[in-house]
Amino acid sequence: MRALLSTFAMLSLLALSSPPVEGMNGQHPDTASVNELTRKAYIEARTQPGKSIKNAHKALSEASKLQYDKGIADACLALGMAYLARYNAGDSALYYNNKALEIYRRDDDPAGIARAAYGLAYVFSFKGDMLKSGQYSRMSLEYFEKTGDKRGVLNALSTLTYAARHENDYEKAIDLTKRAIKTARSVNDTIPLADAMNTLGNIYKDMLLFDDAIDSYYGALELWQAKNDSSGMAIAYGSIGLMYYYQKDYRNALRHNFMKLPISEQTGNLWETSKTLNNIAQIYSALEIHDSSLFYLRKGLLLTETMNYPSGMANVCHNIASSHLQKGNTDSALYYIERSVDIARELNDPELSTYLVTMGRVQSGLGDYASALANGREAYRMAGEQNEPIKIAAAAALLSDLYSYTGRKDLAFDYLKEHYTISDSINNNEFLKKITRLELQNEYDRKQEEAAFRQKRELMIRENRIQRQNLYLKGLVLLILLVIALSVIILHNTRLRARYARTRLEQKLLRAQMNPHFIFNSLSAVQDLIMSGHPEKANTYLAKIANLMRNILENSLEEFIPLEKEIETLRLYLDIQKLRFDREFDYEFSIDRLIDADNIAVPPMLAQPCLENSVEHGLKHNKDKGRVDISYKLEKGLLKLEVVDNGVGRKESSAIAGSNGRDRRSISTELIKKRLGHFRKTTKKKNISYNIEDLYKDNNAAGTRVVIMMPVRKMFA
Question: Is 259 within 8 Å of 237 (Cβ atoms)?
Fold first, then answer.
């Protein structure tokens, strides 16, 4: 489900602030009756919205007859909250909250203005207008602070935090949540504190810091369990389950969602129940248990129909169609995807392009290529107008397949090339985002450490003023603590710098491996195969190129990978080089019999630059048939990698290349040396090394030998 839906999950965490209503003392009995009806409506708004609406309408009617402005405004606010809790983000909630705000402003009632602005913040969040939602959130915070309403302040901070998350401003979101946690601790109630802890977990989740997110969610769960708050416990179970799902721990993901489901069903929370059913279906789909996935999707569809939530119905119908398509039930898939597209067209749903791609897949399976192409082109156009790279890539992949089926190999190749270009760009962007988020978290931790240091220094000054007689003893103790704190900070920052330096080296090596000339030339060679009437061979090499790109991107995220996976990547690279290489060459891998390639891990991306130098600079200018031998041996607690080629040697290669300064070979060599230097420092093994040797036969250049002594780890104990 889209991110907008999480606003209701936030709303369900917050106790709705009810207006202060007086008893009958000093009041007209009729106005006291209005206040009592309004009070009941507020209490029921969260758990029994239908009953709340009935009581609030009765209160509004009686207050209007009495011309009781405060009673009219309070009843309107109760109606706005009840309609919102009943999943109606349309005109009813907006109308009644606006009417309440108008009366409160006219009567100069700051507490009422704060509550009405808070309600409108959620209404506009539901409608997707985050700009107005933020404006009303700031207004509610201002008036809650004026009236000293700490619970209201917590609610307003929560809406502002969600807006900051929506804008990917994680530093601001963390600051707001820390402020909420501090305020919650002063309220003497653990429920608001649990809400704030859960929000902090959501921020860590957005930053891809899953371990920190799970810690925060468990902290919130303990607080909700202490209060026996079933709604809060259900939210925590769902959040923890989602973290396990992101980490592909499907067993724990299912277990936590099944812990949440009965609670959501017992409390009658249709929204949370619907989300939980959809999450369970997604987990079963990831496990390829499609029958179970369909079972829970159908239950979720019934709930979205009960709630009269059209965009939710379109989304669930699309998921059902996808499951049927994976099972090969194209007729059933066609029924549900047509329903999804019809609803989305009526709503002008931004997800329509995604649904059209799935419809194209279904129609292709039925052999209706004309309709599939029409839907694919429309999806491609819409995705381009929305500037959504992921959707453009999906539509391009569909069009490539369809044009391949219909004999337009040229267009099929063009769209396939666009699909892989966008996919590679997305993968690189996600990697860079992760690095940026880690840097942001490190900067935030540093600020927290500095704040803690300032607090300790202030404490030292106060204690010295109060107890002069213990000045020297306390000064000595505080000095020791200061040295320890500074040592910890220096050690922590040193480790962060080392980790960041390693990440930068890996990024540079990744860019060195993702040589755009190599990729372009490889794709051009594939295009030549297609044009020369060898589509099957072209398809084989395209698959190898795709696997090579995927392996490089996956391996770049790990410090050590299995040797078997490293060799697989190198074989793919050499096979692709053979395709685009003018002269034939052979290669062979030799692995010492003492090495278990599945149970040994090596640093990735060290061998490939050596092979590139051998092929591009050694064998390329060789008159005889080329050959590259790659061997792995265990030696003195390290792994010895040896790459030997029969090329023209470094001297003649440099002469051919001319005087262009530093070439790719020297750049990749520098990166390898820097990376090995990093391992030499971290592992304390001085015999980690990198050597290049020119080979000669009868005083003539006969090739090059590269020897790398690299660190090695065992995968399993």
Answer: yes
- pLDDT, tens digit (0-9, with 9 covering 90-100), for 293-312: 889 989 888 888 887 778 88
In the numeric block, which tokens belong to residue 46?
């969260």
Report how many domains make up the chain: 2
Domain identity same for 496 and 521: no
**Residue 348 burial class via C-beta count within 10 angstroms: exposed 0-12, middle 13-18, buried 19 and up:** exposed
pLDDT given at position 647: 86
314 token code pair? 């379109």
**For residues 274 and 298, what is the distance between their CA atoms, to the nearest angstrom?**
10
pLDDT tens profile 33-91: 888 888 887 777 766 777 888 888 888 888 888 888 888 989 888 888 888 766 554 55
Pair (481, 549) in one structural domain = no
Helix axis angle, 6-13 relative to 230-246, nearest 10°? 140
598 to 519, 570, 605, 713: CA distances (angstroms): 29, 16, 17, 11
Chain-centroid distance of CA 386 in Å reads 20
d(CA 555, CA 697): 38
Under DSSP, is residue 14 helix (H, G, I), strand (E, B) or coil? Answer: coil
Reduced to 3 states (helix: H, G, I; strand: E, B; else coil), residue 12 is helix
SS3 category, 690: strand
Sequence letter at residue 125: S
CB neighbours of 270 closer than 8 A, spacing ≥ 6?
Answer: 87, 303, 306, 307
Distance CA(704)–CA(618), nearest Å, equals: 8
Kind and range of the H or E run holding 546: helix 535-555
Beta strands 585-591 and 626-635 are parallel
Structural domain ending residue among the three candidates 513, 536, 553: 513
CA distances from 481 to 460, 474, 484 (A): 11, 10, 5
Lowest pLDDT segment from 3-12, 114-123, 208-217, 242-251: 3-12
- Residue finishing a domain among 513, 536, 569: 513
**What is the H or E stretch that residue 2 is in?**
none
590 within a domain of the structure (yes/no)? yes
Contacts 24+ apart (CB under 8 A), 511-518: 512/609, 512/664, 512/667, 512/668, 512/671, 513/552, 513/605, 513/608, 513/609, 514/424, 514/549, 514/552, 515/612, 515/664, 518/576, 518/612
Q: What is the spatial distance between Cα 112 and Cα 117, in angstroms, rounded to a whole number? A: 8
Q: What is the distance between the alpha carbons of residues 544 and 385, in angstroms, rounded to a whole number?
A: 32
Q: DSSP letters of 511-543?
A: HHHS-HHHHHHHHHHHHHHHHTT-HHHHHHHHH
Both tokens of 286, joined, read 């990831």
Among the ranges given (164-173, 216-225, 399-408), the one the predictor scored with the smallest mean pLDDT: 164-173
Q: What is the DSSP string of 402-456?
A: HHHHTT-HHHHHHHHHHHHHHHHHHHHHHHHHHHHHHHHHHHHHHHHHHHHHHHH
Q: In which residue are the tokens 């939210």 written?
A: 235
Q: What residues are paired with 589 via a beta bridge?
A: 630
Please report, for the domain that includes residue 702, its CATH number: 3.30.565.10
* Segments forming the whole domain that contains residue 706: 516-714
Residue at 331 is within a domain:
no
Token look-up 């004999």 returns 407
Please write the tens of the pLDDT for every residue from 184-200: 888 777 888 888 888 88
Helices (H), 46-189: 49-66, 69-85, 91-106, 110-126, 130-147, 150-166, 170-185
Helices 230-246 and 210-226, axial angle in degrees (round to 10) = 160
